[in-house]
Records
---
Amino acid sequence: MPRPVVLTISTNKGGAGKTTTAVHLAAGLALSGARVLLVDLDKQGHCATFLGRDPAPRLYDLLVKERSLDELIVEVRPNLHLLASNSETLVAQDFARLRNAQADLLQHALLAKAVGYDFVLFDTPPQGLLQECAIYSADILLMPTPVDYPGMDGAAQFVQVVQKLQEREGLAPVPLYVIPMFVDLRTTESKYNLKLLQERFGDHVLTPVPVRTRMREAIAEGTTIFEYAPGEDIGAVYAGICATLRGLAAGRARPGEEAARG
Ligand SMILES: Nc1ncnc2c1ncn2[C@@H]1O[C@H](COP(=O)(O)OP(=O)(O)OP(=O)(O)O)[C@@H](O)[C@H]1O
Ligand SMILES: [Mg+2]
C-alpha cells in the first residue's frame, strides 16, 4: 500500500493561521474523497476545538504510553480522522527530549503506523522539538504567512529553521509553499507584502486566503467554513488549494527520499 503524503503546516509566528489552515485543508481533502489523518502537535489542542471536539491527550498516549494509533484516532468527519492533543503534549515533548529523541521521532512513532491514508497533515506549534520533527517528516511544507511585518518575519525565521534542519540531518530539500493569510487587497500592506512573497517564492505562493469574519465565526462554532457558510469565497480558496495539493501529491518526485531519511 502506498504511504501517505505528509503535509506539514508550520511557521514560527504564533496566530498565523496554522491551525485554521491545517483543519481546512484536512477537511477539504476529505470532502474531495481522500482519506485524511490530521495530527495536532500543539498543546493548545485547537484542531479538536475547531472541529467541535474536546482536546484530548492522544498524542501523549501515543508517544509516552505507546498506545496503538488505531485506538487513539477518532473519525471527526467522513474520511477525516483526528489524533487530538492537549496540554499533556508538552509533557510528551519533554519526555521525548529527555530520551534524546531524534528528528525522525514521528516517522517511527506515528507515520510507520498510519496505514491506509492518502494524506497525513501535521499542525505544529510555532517552535520546539515537535515542530522540528514535523518538518523532518514532511513531503510538502506549507507556510501560512500573514501579510504583515510579524508574519513576514516569522516566515523568514521558519525558512532558516528548515534549512538548518535539512543541513543537520542531511535531508534533500522539501518543497515549501507559502499560503498568504488574512489578505485584504484593499490595503497597501497586503499588496506590498504579497508582492514581496511573490518575488521571494515565485510560483510557490499559493492562492491568498482572504481575511473573513465568517471564518472566525465558523471556528468559534466548532465547524469548518465548508459547513458554516458553504457559499463563502474563502471556502472556495481552501478547496482550490486542496486541488493544487492533490496535483502536487500525484506528481511529486521523490528520488533518493527513502535513503535520505534512513
Ligand atoms: N481567514 C481568516 N480571516 C479572519 N480571521 C481568521 C482567518 N483565519 C483564521 N482566523 C483567525 O485567526 C486566529 C489565529 O488562527 P489560528 O489559531 O489558526 O493560528 P495559529 O497559527 O494556529 O495560532 P497558534 O500559533 O496559536 O497555534 C484565530 O482567531 C482565527 O479565528
Ligand atoms: Mg495553532
Note: The longest strand covers residues 140-146.
---
Amino acid sequence: MNIIVTSLKGGVGKSTTSIYLSAAALERGYDPVTLIDADPQASSAEWLEIWPIEGINVVEAPSERTATRAISRAEGLVVVDTPPGNERATQAAVALADAVVIPTRAGGVEYSRVSATIELIPSATPRGVVICAARLGTNDLEAAIDWWKHQKVQVWGIIPERVGIASGPEARLSREGLSNYDTVLGRALRAKQ
Ligand SMILES: Nc1ncnc2c1ncn2[C@@H]1O[C@H](COP(=O)(O)OP(=O)(O)O)[C@@H](O)[C@H]1O
Ligand SMILES: [Mg+2]
C-alpha cells in the first residue's frame, strides 16, 4: 500500500503529514512501515534521525530514479514524502500510488496549485486533501471545505493549527495530531478498496 503525500506547493504540511501518517500506521499495527523521503531537503528523514520511531524504516530517495526504485521495492505500508515544485518527480511518484494525500491550507491562493497537483494523478487513483494548520471555526476554513466539496474533491482530514504538531523533531508526536491523522489514514485505506 503506497500512500503518496504530495503538493506542488511548499510549506503546506507534507513532511508533517508524512511523519504523522507513518506513526498512525504503526499504531494501527502495520509492520513494516516505510517512510520514503523523496525530497532532497530531507526534512522528514532528518526529523526521524533526531527523534527515531521504532518500527518506521526511513529511506532517503532524493531523485526521481531513486524514489521510483524505493517505492517499487518497499514492502508493507509505505508513505512517501515528496518535494515541492517538481512536476516530474510528483508525476513519477503519484503514478505508483494506491492513494494520494494532498496537504493544503485554507485560503484562496492554495486552490490553483492543488488543482495542478491533482491533474498529475491518474484518474482512477483515490485522492483527498488534508487541510493543515486549520483555524477551527473560521470563515476561511468553512470556505475551503465548501470549495473542495464543490470541486468534488474529498476532504480526508482537517488538522488544527497546534504548536504541538508544529514542534517537529524537538518533541514527541502530539496525541491530538496522531488522532487526527489516524482519520486521514483510515480514509486513504478505505478509498483504496
Ligand atoms: N497542524 C499544524 N499546526 C501548526 N503548524 C503546522 C501544522 N502542520 C504543519 N505545520 C507547520 O507548517 C510548516 C510547514 O510544514 P511542513 O510539514 O514542513 O510542510 P512541507 O513539507 O509541505 O514544506 C512547518 O513549520 C510545520 O511545523
Ligand atoms: Mg517537506
Note: Residues 68 and 93 are 7 Å apart (CA to CA).
